[in-house]
Amino acid sequence: MQWETVIGLEVHTQLATKSKIFSGASTAYGAAPNTQACNVDLAFPGVLPVLNREAVNCALKFGVAVGAEIGRRSVFARKNYFYPDLPKGYQISQFELPIVGKGELTVELENGESKVIGITRAHLEEDAGKSLHEDFHGLSGIDLNRAGTPLLEIVSEPDMRSIKEAVAYARKIHQLVVYLGICDGNMQEGSFRVDANLSIRPYGQEAFGTRTELKNINSFRFLERALNYELERQIDVVEGGGRIVQETRLYDADRDETRSMRSKEEANDYRYFPDPDLLPVEIDESLLEQIRDEMPELPGAKLQRFIQEYALGEKEAKALTASRPLADYYEAVVKAGGETKAAANWVTMELGGALNKAGLNLSDSPVSPVQMGGLLVRIADKTISGKIAKQVFEAIWNGEGDADMVIEAKGLKQITDTGAIEPVIDEIIANNPKQVEQFRAGKEKLLGFFVGQVMKATRGKANPEQVNELLLKKLKG
Amino acid sequence: MHNKTIAELGAGLRAGEFSSVELTRHFLERIDSLDEGLNCYITVTPDVALQAAEAADQRISAGYAGPLAGIPIAQKDIFCTQGVKTSCGSRMLDSFISPYDATVVERLNAAGVVMLGKANMDEFAMGSSNETSFYGPVRNPWDRERVPGGSSGGSAALVAARLAVAATGTDTGGSIRQPAALCGITGLKPTYGRVSRYGMIAFASSLDQGGPMTRSAEDAALMLQAMAGFDAKDSTSAEEPLPDFSAGLNDSLQGLKIGLPKEYFGEGLDAGVAASVEAAIEEYRKLGAQVVEISLPNTHLAVPTYYVVAPAECSSNLSRFDGVRYGYRCEDPRDLEDLYKRSRGEGFGEEVKRRIMIGTYALSAGYYDAYYLKAQKIRHLISDDFKAAFEQVDVILGPSTPSTAFGLGEKADDPVTMYLNDIYTIAANLAGLPGMSVPVAPVEGMPVGLQLIGNYFAEAKLLNVAHKLQQATDWHKLAPEGY
Do A375 and A267 fall into the same domain? Predict the structure, then answer.
């Protein structure tokens, strides 16, 4: 039987606010355990939540970006369950009236087609703390630094029909939230986490099959693997005459498998009800207007602008606009004087390659956009050749200063003075009589040999065009 | 000295007749000798008190002290007090020393009050008799075989017994007004949102409201002045202007329209209590008020609605008491589930557990619409009743409770009968309106409370109406024998 895959995703994005969603404690990652948890985060008796409006603004930006319905009124609700890293015994979330309603996102697929994926809703909620089960000798440690960090949970429709579509959608959401500046997108630190719902059904059947929910996925690679594993597992179960049980499964990246966490019967009754400690959030038109005004350029618009403004090909433009930091870097290089096409090439190829090799992020690049621009200016004005430029780039990378400083210090300035090149050529012609004879006899390929000899003798600094010209004149003359 | 009001003591302090340290010592001695028979205090804080008294004396002699400077009061043990045990009347928090001050505590401290200690109360404010406290029942100073009411029973009894000049209380369904009535003192539950709930341990968040418990309306105005006002730490606190609550105390009641809800004078009301209320109404007529009968047709729905909303909210609010971070933890938990079950099973008392279970049930999937959602709708109907009434009248008047204080243990095993004791007070909480209880003529030596309900943020009007009665009569000056 041919099975159709049906996937829906729930993406948890940590919002890039300075303080927590309901308290003034810092959201910075990596502090010593429980040093960023205030009385409110610790759920001391009597404390009350106060909404951080910045989290609301972040959610609204996302809503506007996906063309979503945004209600005038949104309500926080309590989701009640017991767990040691949930200090209040309930999570403040949203249930009936989420801040962002129905929207959609267009995803480009590998085959060049695009597909619209429905977004059911996106709601604000607080993150829980972390339970640490190692190093405590049979006990568990609780770190509440993360408790109260704002999350936007983005829920998709079950619109994806392949694992590739699901991964493309997740990547697109990731690109979008980072572009919007509402999430740092750091998946290792858990800023962007995905839960996936997957079911299968025979092609042509309208009703959905029973789904399972996969939790704990914190990379795109794991998302693909977890879905692959789960898809095969479901097909095996059904084809083996079994039935899929609705349950939550945990993806174990080390073993590359999913394991049952709890079935529907064991599922919590969360007893949602509106949180009486918080007033409904009123969204007025003027706030929405302000959000729209403050919207950064989105990936699609940026791509079109790059193609037009910088006369780039679609492929190059796409590569450069894949992430906002990269696009920003490129534009800064151009602003610093880099010619647009050369800049595209250098940023994606040379810089990209070097970063990749060193395992660095763009934000950690040792070469600043201004330095890169300065280098490109020196190529364009023929101070250095493209080949020497690579040497200069390496020196800048190693912290030896700007392009001009490196060129000066290493004496890499291109020799364009005919008077300086001519004696070198004369010497080489004199030292290689055999090759000269062959060349003159018609073996013109040997020109390359002579060019190479001249470049070697000038340590690459001679202007290649000039060398060519002079050599031809002398050899033929 | 202990029979004087805040206003009188303040005048004496400022005139240098006595110091706050002397006053504080006097009250600490009274607590020492008299509280054993009453059990009003869970914690007495002589060191904290004397330190505050010394500071107040300095402020007074420097000439920049407000009306509350140097005045000894008690804090209900539901308010978090930094460095002082804050138990909420529960074994669960018997070991809890709060790391911070509630906004109410902070504001009263800033006004210069002297905290003598923390007042006994029903566990987590759940009760109408102060019998659910982990620290044992409080006895009514008018008759020690009777209850003082609850949940602010300790606060009411200690003010009546002159073991502090005033106290704070909280009122979720009548917890200030009912004990004030049963102990013969003045208690005010402000409009929901008037007094910050930050640091006031939550029972039912949409109903809880802190307020003053005093021996006169004049004192209540002074206390409320310090306690009330917008607080950025409480999202439900109101950004309403704060009037001078003392300014209009003596305004004439000529032409004031008082409404008597016929539902508050029907079956179930003790004849003696009815007669006392009638006598007070007569006083108001003499003061020039017009008295008319009104109707609050949904009154009979108040108690059932309350016993869905309050337990539902409490079931969630009390989830944080899990034995993990602070408070009671069972011995040698086998695993996480055992830790939860035994810590909560052993840390909470029967009434608290009963309400958590009712509330958990009411919020469960499949029951939510029938209980919680429906209760919220009825709340609107009850509020609408009041809205209509306040189009006709300025204040609503009736009894605070159906009877005088009942005997210790008399209703302890019958929760429903106990719940009905709050039949007249609950509606004001559901609607968020301010309500007050003031003493009127006692029945067979036991105090009776007259309830006044005002429109939203009309505390100043309520205080005026109460004060005029207290100017015309001496009921509020009666003291229990031996105190």
Answer: no
pLDDT in tens, A452-466: 888 888 888 888 888
CATH code (residue A454): 1.10.10.410
Instruction: Burial-class residue A113 by CB neighbours within 10 Å (0-12, 13-18, 19+).
Output: exposed
Quick check: A477 pLDDT over 70? no
Instruction: Please report residues of A whose CB lies closer than 8 A to that of B313.
Output: 276
Alpha helices in B302-405 (DSSP H): 302-317, 336-347, 350-363, 374-392
Is the CB of B325 less than 8 angstroms away from the CB of A278? no
What class does CATH assign to B6-255+467-477? alpha beta
What's at B104, amino acid-wise? V
pLDDT tens-place string over residues A312-335:
999 999 999 988 889 999 999 999
Find the Cα–Cα–Cα–Cα dihedral B347, B353, B359, B363, rounded to 10°: 70
What are B278-287's pLDDT values in tens digits? Answer: 999 999 999 9
Contacts of B324 in chain A (CB under 8 A): 84, 87, 142
Alpha helices in A152-274 (DSSP H): 163-179, 220-239
**pLDDT of A476 higher than 90:** no
Specify whether A227 is located in the same domain as A338.
Answer: no
Candidates B87, B128, B151, B216; catalytic one: B151
pLDDT tens-place string over residues A120-162? 999 999 999 999 887 788 788 999 999 999 999 999 999 999 9
Contact A48 B88 (CB under 8 A): no
The residue assigned the tokens 């709060």 is B98
* Nearest-angstrom CA–CA distance, A302 and A312: 12
Q: A376 with A264, same domain?
A: no
A51-60, A156-165, A293-302, B149-158: the lowest-pLDDT one: A293-302
Instruction: Please state, in angstroms and rounded to a whole number, the distance separating the CA atoms of residues B127 and B119.
Output: 15
Answer with the one of A288, A305, A338 that is the final residue of a domain.
Answer: A288
Residues 6+ apart with CB under 8 A from A365: A329, A351, A355
- By three-state DSSP, how is residue B6 classified? helix
- pLDDT tens-digit map of B52-88: 999 999 999 998 889 999 999 999 999 999 999 999 9
- Tens digit of each residue's pLDDT (9 = 90 or more) over A297-308: 998 899 999 999
What is the value of ipTM here, to two decimals?
A: 0.96
User: Running DSSP on this structure, what letter comes out for residue A206?
Assistant: -
Q: Report how far residue B413's alpha carbon sits from residue B405's, in angstroms, rounded to the nearest whole number.
A: 16
Q: Which of B19, B20, B76, B411 is flagged as catalytic?
A: B76
Question: Residue A189: its pLDDT value, please?
Answer: 92
Q: What are the distances in angstroms from CA B184 to CA A79, A200, B46, B148? A: 43, 72, 27, 10
Q: How many CB atoms neighbour CB A296 within 10 A?
A: 12
Specify the number of domains making up chain A. Answer: 3
Alpha-carbon distance B125 to B77, whole Å? 10
Q: Last residue of some domain: A392, A410, A428?
A: A410
Do A339 and A448 sit in the same domain of this protein?
no
Residue of A23, A86, A277, A279 to mutate, testing the B interface (most B Cβ within 10 Å of its Cβ): A277
Nearest to A466 by CA among A425, A427, A431: A425
- Across chain B, what does the average pLDDT equal? 97
Rounded to the nearest integer, the mean pLDDT of chain A is 92
Residue A266 reports pLDDT greater than 80? no
Sorted by where each begins, the domain ranges of chain B are 6-255+467-477, 303-375
Residue A224 belongs to domain spanning: 3-288
Q: Which residues contact A427 (CB under 8 A, 6 or more apart)?
A: A457
